[in-house]
Amino acid sequence: MDGLTDHAQRNRAFWNELSDTYQADHGPDLARHGAAWGVWQIPEDEIHALGDVAGKDVLELGCGAAQWSIALAQRGARLVGLDLSERQLEHARALMAEAGLDFPLVHASAEAVPYADASFDLIFCDHGAMVFADPRRTVPEAARLLRDNGLLVFSMHTPIADICWPPDSEQVTDQLRLNYYELNVVDVGESQHVEFQLPYGEWIRLFRANGLVVEDLIELRPEADAVSTYRTEADREWARKWPMEHIWKIRRERDQDH
Prior knowledge:
By secondary structure, the chain is α/β, with parallel strands linked by helices. The chain contains 9 helices and 11 strands. It has one domain (6-252): Vaccinia Virus protein VP39 (Rossmann fold, 3-Layer(aba) Sandwich), CATH 3.40.50. A 7-stranded mixed beta sheet has the order 5-4-3-6-7-11-10, with helices on both faces. Strands 1-2 form a two-stranded antiparallel sheet. The radius of gyration is 17 Å and the shape is globular. The termini are far apart.
């Protein structure tokens, strides 16, 4: 891939190196739950963020090993899985073969998707490319790719969690530690990868500037006995008091010229 931004190059190298370990640690749980959101794998059948996907053209941004895409393809969607990491896509091809499925896997950045305008009814990710790519690039790109009335749905950590999570800690705290108004590139400590976040108002203004309307903001609260391959019991107790993750559900406005 030519023309990658500096952060995209860093994230590609990071995920190519991490992929095998990540899939060993989390892949079986992701595959078992299929269509489920966030680090506590809350089922889509409880959240209803995506709606009925049967017969729809769907793009997953940052598909990893395509556990989500496989689950939605089994529900009748026409999937395209996109990822920046070629190693993640190798895992995806293996899982697709096991599932007896065949849909396109695209090695590209979510900041520059090689598809024509208005190609998709639904674009989504679960802690995927909308976290690891610049939203000032991905939101306009998603708006370009969506058909009229199409949905952009993505999960990520909340700004609340990010300002309570200092880069020198593995654990989220119960104190406001970072400057909310300066959220942009998230400081992830010694890691070589790059994550992004915006204050709530900036997210909404960015959506509106690209013809997108917020339909819902779903704050994910784990059950009292929820377990995660990503987070500790202490994190779970934090997330039961304050929103650690949420899902943006955004709809592309109909073209008023038609």
